[in-house]
Amino acid sequence: MAKSLSSILSQIERLQKEAASIQLEVIDRMRKEIAKYSLTPEQLFGEPESRSARPSKPAKKASKARAAKYADGSGNTWGGMGKRPEWLRQALEAGKALEEFLIGGDKRKAATSTRASKPAVKATRKPVAAVKAAAKKRTSATKTARKPRKTVAAVAPAAE
């Protein structure tokens, strides 16, 4: 015998109500037992860090605090990575050199290894298209100069 859609939906609704009432009964019994024995959430579920039975994901390693490489006399420091701090940018704009702010014995090393101390190398190469065009002009000029010109000799009628 085929059931109608409305009878199936009413059956689902009745079963959901029954499941909800069973859950409420269980929760009520648990609350009574917890109160009877004065149980705390930590006793029931463990410490907040270890609530789950499975092992937790390993914590990400804390990034190493980069040791200060540059400092001014006011207590400002910078590790040398990332964007330069405002205090250092202002000092450099005022005419000071980056090497003046180095901490410890790094002054010689930084003088030879910083990009600022290296002279800029200018590009002296011509663009490829310009080089090819110049080579084409040279070859066409030399070809025409080397080829002998054809001359047509005027032929006089033969005297008979």
Automatic annotation (TrEMBL):
Residues 60-103 form the DNA-binding protein H-NS-like C-terminal domain. Its main location: cytoplasm. Residues 41-82, 108-160 are annotated as: Disordered. Signal peptide: none annotated. SMART domains: HNS. Residues 57-67, 134-150 have a biased composition (Basic residues). InterPro entries: H-NS_C_dom, H-NS_C_dom_sf. Belongs to the histone-like protein H-NS family. This is DNA-binding protein H-NS. It comes from Roseateles saccharophilus.
